[in-house]
Amino acid sequence: MATNFRPSPTFKFLALLLTIFQCTTTTLAQAPVPAPSGPTNITKILEKAGQFTTLIRLMKVTQLGDQINTQLNNSNQGMTVFAPTDNAFSSLKPGTLNSLSDQQKVSLLQFHVVPNYLTNSQLQTVSNPLRTQAGDTASDKFPLNVTTSGNQVNVSTGVVDTTVSNSIYTDGSLAVYQLDKVLLPMSMFGPASPAPAPEPEKKKKSGAQDDVPATDDGSVSADASGAVVFGSYLHGLSVGAVAIVTMLCL
Ligand SMILES: *[C@@H]1O[C@H](CO)[C@@H](O)[C@H](O)[C@H]1NC(C)=O
Ligand SMILES: *[C@@H]1O[C@H](CO)[C@@H](O)[C@H](O)[C@H]1NC(C)=O
Ligand SMILES: *[C@@H]1O[C@H](CO)[C@@H](O)[C@H](O)[C@H]1NC(C)=O
Ligand SMILES: *[C@@H]1O[C@H](CO)[C@@H](O)[C@H](O)[C@H]1NC(C)=O
Fold first, then answer.
1. Which residue has the higher pLDDT, 24 or 201?
2. How far apart are CA 96 and CA 78, in angstroms?
3. At residue 227, does pLDDT exceed 50?
4. What's the confidence (pLDDT) of residue 8?
5. Is the shortest distance between the CB of 161 and ligand 4 below 6 Å?
6. Centre of ligand 1 from the C-alpha of residue 25, in Å
7. Residue-level pLDDT at 225
8. Atom number of ligand 2 nearest to Cα 73
9. Which long-range contacts (CB under 8 A, 24 or more apart) does 217-220 make?
């Protein structure tokens, strides 16, 4: 008998099933991979606290979240993060965030990060101006002052004065304080600053909040990147199987 292998309909059907199965597992594998517990993760802390989705997104876009995590792991100075709530961001003048360049977004976020661990009481006695990751504390750049009256601690930028409303997290090396306003730096929002002239009216979704557009700046792909990597690993595994099936079919 000739050894010519002709796939029977049943075999073809099984091969098809197998292929479908491959596709299905690849899709399922794109569900979020649980993060391992390990070094301090600012994103995780903010997620747990809730009401910080805009800040989390900005941290992803600017990669400042990763920098904070790395710095926390690699230095013993610790860090202090002022975390504006979603409400704080949405009560900015419409278009404020969108009018910022990528570099300005980075600076804005860095302005909310102090490269030292400050307990609540240290915060109250710190000397002004406080140096943030944004750098230059000159009065027209990135000055940040802390003022206290009684138990109330305020941070002021010369543009914005707001109260530290809550201590969200503190572990001896990272302190996260909640703010109900975004700290707008002098360099970008002060009277002499050239920057954010409100952009000409952009087409806005109805009731759109001032927010980071999820599509424009890659935050969506950032979200999915871990899953995509995992997915393509599975895909790699399945390519072999598909190749075998294909060979058998020919
Ligand atoms: C930090 O936590 C976020 C959200 O839980 C997760 O997506 C991210 O992968 C974590 N980063 C690291 C370095 O573990
Ligand atoms: C944290 O620091 C340790 C030692 O300094 C290093 O081995 C490790 O890779 C770091 N982990 C991260 C996530 O940066
Ligand atoms: C911050 O404090 C410094 C030093 O006390 C002072 O010179 C400056 O005017 C203050 N700036 C603001 C915006 O409060
Ligand atoms: C703190 O800021 C609030 C506005 O958020 C203001 O009403 C209050 O006077 C400020 N207090 C201090 C001590 O600067």
1. 201
2. 30
3. no
4. 62
5. yes
6. 23
7. 39
8. 1
9. 217/61, 217/102, 218/61, 219/57, 219/60, 219/61
Distance 230 CA to ligand 1 centre (A): 15
Separation of 163 CA from ligand 4 center, angstroms?
6
Q: Ligand 2: does its nearest atom lie under 6 Å from the Cβ of 75?
A: no
CA–centroid distance, residue 143 to ligand 4 (Å): 17
Class of domain 42-182: mainly beta
Mean pLDDT of 223-240: 43
Query: Which residues is 166 bridged to in the sheet?
Result: 178
Query: So what's the pLDDT on residue 191?
Result: 87
- With tokens 């570099």, the residue in question is 103
Ligand 4, atom nearest to 148 Cα: 13
For the residues of 14-78, what is the DSSP string, one character each? HHHHHHHHHHHHHHHTTSPPPPPS-S--HHHHHHHH-S-HHHHHHHHHHTHHHHHHHHHHH-SS-
The 10s digit of each residue's pLDDT in 171-190 is 999 999 999 999 999 999 99
Neighbours of 117 (CB within 10 A): 18
CA atoms within 13 A on the CB side of 214: 10
> Could you state, in order of their start, the residue ranges of all structural domains in the chain?
9-30+226-249, 42-182
